[in-house]
Predict the 3D structure of the following.
Amino acid sequence: MEKNGGATWADQWDYNPDPVSVPDTKKKSGNNTSNYKQKVGEGLGKTKAVASIGVKKVKEGTAVGFQWIKDKYHKTTQKK
């Protein structure tokens, strides 16, 4: 790469044409915001449902675990 305006390595060895830039022709409107909010809302609803199921499973697992510990404790203390 020369600082004095000479050809760069890419200019010397790249024989492909430079890509043509295409201007963005999509119009942005206020409707995009409502679509975005709707998608986020749907995603949050799904996340909430999955989190709720996960909490229920943790609660059930904890209850089963404590019951197991309680049973083991009572078995060891009942022996005389």
User: Anything to note?
Assistant: The CA atoms of residues 23 and 29 lie 17 Å apart.
